Every structure is written in C-alpha cells, then in structure tokens.
C-alpha cells in the first residue's frame, strides 16, 4: 500500500468526503447501508475509503465476502475521523451563528432537577423572542452534559454550578434556597426558622448517585455537622418519586424552591419548612465552552432568561 508521503515529498491529506465515507462504514460495517446514510453511491463510497487508506498508508477495513470489519488501525482512525467531522460541524455552526445570531440549531442540555421547572419559561422565551432558533433539549445528568459539551454534541448547558471544570465558562442566572419537605404532622413542618443543625439526625431521603442535587444535599448536611456515618436512604431516580416516598412516611428530603409548587402542591400528606437565614441554596447557570464564538449570543440569551424568570421564588443574579 502506498505511503502517505509520495515520492515528490508532498504529504497527501485525506479529504472530508473520504473521512465521512469511512466514518459511515465504521458505524454500519456495511457498504450499502453506509452509502444510503450519506447519500453516496456504493462504488463511490468504496472508492473514497480506498483513497483514504492509500492517503494514510494503512489498511482500515478487512473485507470478506460476508462482512466488513475494522482493522486495529481502522478502530483508532474511526474515532479520530468522527472527532474531525464533529469539529467541522461545530465550526460550520459557529460560522452560521456568527452570521445570524439566534438562528439555526441550539442544543441545550438540562439537568433533571431543573428541566421540569424552568423549561416552560425557556420554551416560552424562545417561542416569543427567538422564533428562528431551533431549540433542541437534552435532559441528562451533569457528567453526561459536560461530556456532550466537551465533544460538541451540546452547545449550551442549564445546570447547577460551580462546576470547577477547565475550559467551561459559567453565566450565572439565579440562586434558590432549599426547602425541607416532610410527612404531614412532622415536628419541623410549617416552621420558617429551621436551623441547619436539625439535619444532623433526620431520616434523609436523597436522589440516586450521579445527580448533582444529591451531592449538594450531602454537602449541606456535612456543613450542618451531620456525621457521615449517619445513614442516608437513597431510593429515587427523580424528585417526584422522592416526594412520594416522603409522603409515605419514609423520611424527609430537600427540594429546591423552583420544584416545590410542582412536586408538593396536590399532596396533603406533606408539609414544608424553611431554613433560618442564610438558608442552604444552590446556583443555577448557563455553561458553554470557553472561547465559544457564540458567547455574545449566549450572554444575551442569559440576560433575557433572567428577565423571564423574575416571577419565580429565586434571587436573580446580576448580569
């Protein structure tokens, strides 16, 4: 097979068409299916992959009469090819956004403990103010969102901060207090001056591992002096289930203020209590890749979103 450097001393660079063809074959391991996906004829696809192999000087595929397999080199190149294609796609989107802000696709990632309570305001804002923006929402846990942002799968995140992640810029939106939710007749129900120390011995129900709200609640408990050996019952994948467990008398939990009305309004088996100042709280922000070409657009979006959220029981951050 030819070397990637020809006798004339010039390095042969693979084309985007070749990378796109190979990435499709690597995904489907089938030439006909790959050709159909990218709208290319099967002979042209095969020729593009062969040209890529010649340009790189390595065999990428093992072809048999029955199937197509990736060679060891092909497996490594496939990951790189997909990263290059993703980066080129992101570049085109950045250029599109620079030409015409608030048009095209905006892939917004949102954590589950924010999505049900803030998305109505976000969707209303986009509909009324940015009608040419194609908003695509992805609800995932924080680690998955950050991975999506880093790899270009997502453009902007709506989540709890601080993240402490390099190359991620946070744009604060608001701070909100946590509220104690307990079974009806609980001795802390109805109080507005609950000391944080009360968390030391309570039967606390939290979300499953991976939810940032769980980590925040545990941090609050540690600050209150709760012994880490004091058991915490983890029983729920979402806040709705968590609240039902509280209503069933299994313990108490902490809810952010924005979730309180939605999760407790119709359940007469619950009571709530508020902490004495300064109440434990969390900060919600937008997060983007540092140096993003869409930073001015995202900052303007954050300012508009702060205005749209003024009716919520939160403390709006300064722009």
Automatic annotation (TrEMBL):
It comes from the Bacteria. Residues 14-71 form the HTH lysR-type domain. The keyword 4Fe-4S does not apply. Pfam families: HTH_1, LysR_substrate. The keyword Aminoacyl-tRNA synthetase does not apply. Keywords: Activator, DNA-binding, Transcription, Transcription regulation. Belongs to the LysR transcriptional regulatory family. This is Probable hydrogen peroxide-inducible genes activator.
């Amino acid at each position: 097979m030819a070397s990637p450097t020809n006798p004339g001393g010039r390095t042969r660079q693979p084309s985007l068409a070749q990378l796109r063809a190979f990435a499709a074959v690597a995904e489907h391991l089938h030439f006909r299916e790959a050709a159909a996906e990218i709208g290319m004829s099967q002979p042209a696809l095969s020729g593009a992959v062969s040209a890529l192999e010649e340009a790189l000087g390595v065999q990428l595929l093992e072809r048999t009469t029955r199937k197509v397999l990736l060679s060891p080199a092909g497996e490594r190149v496939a990951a790189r090819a997909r990263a290059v294609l993703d980066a080129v796609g992101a570049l085109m989107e950045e250029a599109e956004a620079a030409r015409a802000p608030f048009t095209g696709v905006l892939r917004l990632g949102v954590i589950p403990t924010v999505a049900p309570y803030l998305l109505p305001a976000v969707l209303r804002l986009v509909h009324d103010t940015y009608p040419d923006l194609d908003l695509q929402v992805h609800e995932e846990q924080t680690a998955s969102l950050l991975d999506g942002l880093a790899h270009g799968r997502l453009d902007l995140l709506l989540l709890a901060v601080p993240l402490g992640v390099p190359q991620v810029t946070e744009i604060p939106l608001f701070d909100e207090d946590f509220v104690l939710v307990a079974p009806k007749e609980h001795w802390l129900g109805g109080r507005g001056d609950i000391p944080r120390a009360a968390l030391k011995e309570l039967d606390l129900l939290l979300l499953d591992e991976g939810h940032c709200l769980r980590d925040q609640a545990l941090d609050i408990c540690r600050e209150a002096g709760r012994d880490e050996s004091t058991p915490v019952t983890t029983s729920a994948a979402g806040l709705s289930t968590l609240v039902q467990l509280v209503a069933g008398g299994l313990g108490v939990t902490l809810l952010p203020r924005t979730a309180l009305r939605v999760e407790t309004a119709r359940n007469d088996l619950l009571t709530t209590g508020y902490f004495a100042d300064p109440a434990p709280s969390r900060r919600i922000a937008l997060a983007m890749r540092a140096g993003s070409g869409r930073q001015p657009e995202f900052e303007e979006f954050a300012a508009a979103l702060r205005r749209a959220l003024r009716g919520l029981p939160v403390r709006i951050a300064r722009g």
